[in-house]
Amino acid sequence: xxxxxxxxxxxxxxxxxxxxxxxxxxxxxxxxxxxxxxxxxxxxxxxxxxxxxxxxxxxxxxxxxxxxxxxxxxxxxxxxxxxxxxxxxxxxxxxxxxxxxxxxxxxxxxxxxxxxxxxxxxxxxxxxxxxxxxxxxxxxxxxxxxxxxxxxxxxxxxxxxxxxxxxxxxxxxxxxxxxxxxxxxxxxxxxxxxxxxxxxxxxxxxxxxxxxxxxxxxxxxxxxxxxxxxxxxxxxxxxxxxxxxxxxxxxxxxxxxxxxxxxxxxxxxxxxxxxxxxxxxxxxxxxxxxxxxxxxxxxxxxxxxxxxxxxxxxxxxxxxxxxxxxxxxxxxxxxxxxxxxxxxxxxxxxxxxxxxxxxxxxxxxxxxxxxxxxxxxxxxxxxxxxxxxxxxxxxxxxxxxxxxxxxxxxxxxxxxxxxxxxxxxxxxxxxxxxxxxxxxxxxxxxxxxxxxxxxxxxxxxxxxxxxxxxxxxxxxxxxxxxxxxxxxxx
Length: 490
Description:
Blueprint: H1 6-30, E1 40-46, E2 68-75, H2 79-108, H3 117-133, H4 138-169, E3 171-172, E4 178-180, H5 182-209, H6 215-231, E5 234-241, E6 244-253, E7 256-260, E8 270-276, E9 288-294, E10 300-305, H7 323-351, E11 361-362, E12 371-372, H8 374-378, H9 388-393, H10 410-450, H11 454-488
Helix pairs in contact: 1-11, 2-4, 2-6, 2-7, 2-10, 3-4, 4-7, 5-6, 5-7, 7-10
């Protein structure tokens, strides 16, 4: 038969269970607004019943309950939904990180301001028309040179602004080695995130080995995985033992395995960048950037060409997206804008004559020497007024300007360039807004599963409070009964 103290032990267990439940409820309420926090729930189970097998057990009451216990504190989450969270983070940052870069490019053209390249180009041709009317007027010649010099300076300044924007994305030295820029900062951050994921995984495994639940550490690791997904596509596989999670983790980043806590031989992976100079001098239209995965010995495990993104295929287990690919895509657009602006300058240079033998402009934007020839700056009277009509007619002439295959005027070409610059910025902004809305929806779905409901937690708090009070009352009642037996019965 069970002893007199069984009821006290049952009550004590009830107090401990409800106390732990209240503690967990308080933890949930305290983190109701914490980003990435997953609601926790106390799993209460009945303890083993009291049993005293004897010869006459068949005619005695059955097993007696001994109370309850906390089996585990469960973390409420949906791993499949979490994968969608990672994917939406990858899709969103691909466009979001392009916005500021492309908007800076758009602002560098100063269009449609009255002092932009387009307006100066119009003033330049008007000055030639004025010179055609008075071919020998030195004042008009000086005006032509002044407007031309202002146009050349503005085009050079705009090109240098685009170059600065490009360098803010990736900066190289003479080696060439990537020494700075947004992409390098992101790669350094990704390495830091990978280190933290590995360290957290080791701590999580140890806690699981002790039979405990590392809920808060799991939340931190999921937040880091989402942060890694912002840099590029990730694929996460969680480890299980006997159908229960064991804290193990496998992570693939841009098609390369970067974390594998199940394999004791697996070595940490480090990310770095290669800059391949595909051109000559300052021509960077064919330059490429590679993301390199290396082991601790420096052996390259895999390289991903961030520049030629159309070559990335599912066969390499790479799905486009993430800020690394997005920022590089924006950089490539900047390179394209620079190339088109330089083609515009070269075409203008090759079609405007100062006299029968000399061009009005010299150099190009790539080498930073595009300007009016110095002799005209020093003495505008050298201009041949008889060339004014031909130069003025260049405005309406349709010219083949690369990369366009159809001839157009200089103003039409520049208008196309401005449209492309503005369209790229607006397109990135629109796509970012769309993907951000999708990300918010997926986050809301996750929060509906994992998030803390204050009303629900307050209801549970009352439930556990009453359970605690009832268990305490039970102990008080048994204590009174024992007092009667011990002190008053005899």
